[in-house]
Amino acid sequence: CTSRDLLFHLLVLNMKASRILSLYLALSWFDVGQNFRLYRTDFMRIDSINSRCKMSRMLTSMYRTQAMKSLRERLGTIRLLSKEGPAREMPPSNVKSDELDWEKTWMSVVSCAKSEAGKRFLGECRAMQEIEEIEEHFDMIGELRALRVRNKMKDFDDSFTFTSIADVEDILLRVSTAGVVEVEELQTLRTTARTLRQLNDRMKSEEVSWLCPTVVRVWSQRGGKAVPAQVIKVLNQNLKSDGRLDLSRYPEARALQENYLRLEETVRTTTNLQRKLHPLVQEMESAKQAYLQAIHQILRLISRDISPHARDVLDALEASAVLDGLCARERAALRMGASRPLVGREGLIQLHACQHPLLALRETSPVGNDLLLDSSKRGLVVTGPNGGGKTILLKTVGLFAKLVQRGCWLPCRAGSRFDLFEHILCSIGDGQDVFKDLSTFSSQLEDIRKIMNTSLSSAPASSLILLDEPCSGTCPEEGSALAKAILQELVEQDVRLVTTTHYEGVKNMAMNNHRFQVCNMYWNGSSPSFRAFFGFPGHSRALAAAERSGLPRAVLGRARSLLAGHQQVLELVEEVEERRAGEHQVQLEISALRLRIHQLEASMDQWEERIATGSTALIRQARTAVLLQLQVAEAAVEEAKQEALRKEELAWGLESEDLELSLSLFYQGAEESEAKDKRKGSRK
């Protein structure tokens, strides 16, 4: 048959098979669903039926995926073999692989989130183009780090857990549109609502408000609030502690449940003939339907009571997702040993001890390298041996640019700077495609053409371009000349460019052009060091890489004999590399010593300031102590004075009493003597 007939038959067969399977699954799902609604509500016999439901869903999803994939492959193959037109008119979809390993890197950051809503929020996170927004995210990561340090490196959710917050957005949307929620969904909603209230208490605490003001402000702006108490009250009234529906508030439904259970037990234990069981089975089915209708009505009432508060719970859920995303950035920064970079728009890249994010996330302590790109040195040409880490350094720069756009700290030393780039353009790996008639070389040229067009239409210093061995899939002489022309044209457009190469012509061009700098991924004896030494290029060491890969010795010996005339040149180059590497290592040690001296001087200044501050504080404390002692002494003197006065007054009081007594006795004696004299005179 012709290709059209074959295509028609395949489509018909797929349609028939899909209809038959869909009908079968629909019938099975109806039967399983009816039983599952009953047992899922109140009984413990849930495992087998639940597994049947999950298996039905999985089979449906698997069949759809495999059927669509098979149909696409058949359509592509049929069109490819057809003689009615070129094969590229209807090719299967071919998506280019992730060149920078960005998806792996970002998924590693997303995995640091604990809640499903937080992971979904990070997965949908867009690239930021405003420095203020990026700086705000940097501030919030710093605040969360300060809170972690204060709490002895405990997570933000130590008092609760983000994992208890389920992604209940679909449940709440269904409730808000007069839908009915199932029992398991009500239990999930109750657990989430309780955790959201605990999160609100945590955000309102004095510690978080003091250490994380930006986090609290952003959380409030994104809808952070307490879940209404009415939601949890309704759920607690209608659910038991184990998540089953509590029918104590619904006596009619409870009676229907007991009636159905009684009939079911009777049918199960009765061994009479089928004709005697038939009326009883019908009665049991009727009781079952009545009970299911009552349960459905109860669930509708519960959903109606929750519906007015669905918007508030959604806002709190969204705010918790934002907060979990921030905590995930902080956890990723902690795992990578990252620090906060400076950010600007001048196209400046100044990195100290930068590490590949994926390697840093593995916590394997990868080698860190320094890197500098600015308006005077716009291009960096990375050279060195195969397997020495050239592409790793190239990808590190691209991943740093994307991490900055997502508001993440970078795995490099403090004081580094990575400016914001609007366009991150790269050509890495082999992009050949048989359906597009693209070879390795032609696919590279296609990528470079698009990159140059984009950089021409963008603002100065707003594009970061990464090229992995450009023009390497053709004649070395022509490829080298074309690569030099492309690189020179790109740096004239005021972009920031990082490229790798094995072409000697490109290396010489970079050494003689003031807008380029060149680095060598140093080869340490018999193995790569993965450390970049700047100022001189390196050679590829292809034979060493072949030896490490396990090629036969005979092949390696023959290759060395073919390079006999060039071997002396290679040995001389290796000797020069060793000497320059030694000089570079000495310079690094001198720089490290200077940095150490600077740190020690800063530390001495801090200690002197502390001593000065401490001496001033000691003097202040001594003065306070002396004043206190003086006050105590003055109080003691005053008390002594008062005591002396009191004693003096007491003594004077005693003396005056004695004097009065003596005077009264004297006057009394005088009166008595005068009276005697009068008596004597009268006698006389």
Q: Can you give a write-up of this model?
A:
The structure is a single chain. The strands form two sheets. A six-stranded mixed sheet has the order 5-6-7-3-8-9, with helices on both faces. The longest helix is centred in the last third of the chain and has 120 residues, at 564-683. The chain starts with a helix and ends with a helix. Strand 5 (423-427), helix 16 (440-456) and strand 6 (463-468) form a beta-alpha-beta unit. The protein has 21 helices and nine strands. The protein has 684 residues and is of the alpha/beta class. The protein has helices at residues 3-42, 47-81, 102-110, 116-123, 131-150, 169-176, 183-203, 206-211, 213-221, 229-238, 251-269, 274-306, 310-336, 357-361, 390-405, 440-456, 476-492, 504-512, 542-549, 553-562, 564-683; strands at 349-354, 369-373, 379-383, 417-418, 423-427, 463-468, 496-500, 516-524, 527-534.
